[in-house]
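ASSEMBLY PREDICTION REQUEST
Request ID: AP-0331
Submitted by: J.K., bench scientist
Number of chains: two
Total residues: 506
Priority: normal
Notes: Please return the full assembly, not individual chains.
Input sequences:
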Amino acid sequence: MSIRADLGLRRGEFVLDLAFSAPSGQVLALLGSNGAGKSTALAAMAGLLPLARGELIVDDRILERVATGTRLAPQAREVGVLFQGLALFESMSALDNVAYGPRSRGVAKLEARAQAHAWLTRFGVADLASRRPSQLSGGQAQAVALARALIVSPRLLLLDEPLASLDAEHRVEARAVLQQTLREFEGVSVIVTHELGDALSLADRVLVLEAGKRVQDGTPEQVVEQPATAHLRAMVESWRGG
Amino acid sequence: MTERGQGVGHWLLILLALIGLGLFVLPLIGLIARAPLAELGPLLVRDVVGQALGLSLVVSLAALGLALLLGLPLAWVLARFEFPGRRLVRALVTLPMVLPPVVAGVALLTVFGRRGLFGPVLSALGIELAFTTAGAILAATFVAAPFLIVTLEAAFERVDRRLEDAAATIGATRLRILWTVTLPAIRPSLLAGLALCWARALGEFGATITFAGNFPGRTQTMPLAVYEAMQSDPDGALALSLVLLAVSLALLFGLRGQLGRALT
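STATUS: Completed
Returned structure:
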């Protein structure tokens, strides 16, 4: 199990041109400032934005290849996404949010709910199953959103700024839940973040993006010890200062 | 006083505001004061009234259904797709809101009337629209659907697209996303749009009388019955008006703040 990505696309003035591959089990951070193209890269991998050039292959399965006109819809990609702000469905209970994936794939209601309950139990939030998303704390809501993404057995897990919207108090708890989840996930995980601290605490490997291009690819230690650009050096210094 | 500046103009504005208020409130008071409240019961159970009431319900609800069936997809396309001529399409779809209803009726006749553009085709298929209940429904839909479309389009534009993206990535299809995620997320706007559309369809007069005529039991809806009763039976007209007023007030009360929120 692995990922091979060569992502090329253009949105107005902005050009994304990013290639990487990773073995299964690896947690990869895409680190960059606003406008560096990390969220665009994530949307492209999820199938929400079409590539103009390149391909995306997960576990030898071609999700998209521009040269042959191959392009799977988001529904068919087996990609789990933790959206920025979580994007939980407010009209449903936490349980039905998680059951939504299996239900959409034709699993009967009772069975889908049983599966969802098992996932909520795994994240320690089964007692909150009947709550609406707005009645959950940041960390609890994140657990529900993770369960919703993981219940459909994705082969690739994409996380968009997973800790950005949380206050300091819930961050610690949410970070621990994330670390545990990422450790147990068998496929490749890609975390998009603008916070160096999040990349360092969650990822095995950091890809630094600037203006749609990769400027550094290394372990968290390498990025901190030998930042490749002035911009990244400034980021490291402000992180050390903070 | 939080307003800056004083002078004669200040009081003039307040006076004009009070006159404006009177203009809107006095007719309502008149209607209620003059209505034969004691005989309301017997007046409302007469055949003509019952017929008009029943027909109005059928026509306005059918128009509401038709507006939803066709207007929701139209609003969705307008909100979600960039295509050449989108502004023109939007203008055309909202035109009935500003078009004199009688002109709408004439326009419908030129297309669906017996001698209209599609008249011969419809006749050959055995379909009569002009001067039938179906025609009254079509007329009401034509003038009322834009209220739903405009409200829904704004709501579709505002909804958080990440909710739909999230549903798509875990396996939901287009229609399932619309039904289970998008519509619940815009529920207040949907309800406000439906209420506006229904109210407009219920009150429809000009397009209906022009395109569908004024036949009791077939096309004579409440507003048409009120108009006819005014000639011969003013008490009946007042009673019918009172019923329509009550429905309008109930709608307004039911929606409370939602109407304003959905329209801005």
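REVIEWER COMMENTS: Chain B touches chain A through 18 residues (CB under 8 Å).
SIGN-OFF: pending second reviewer
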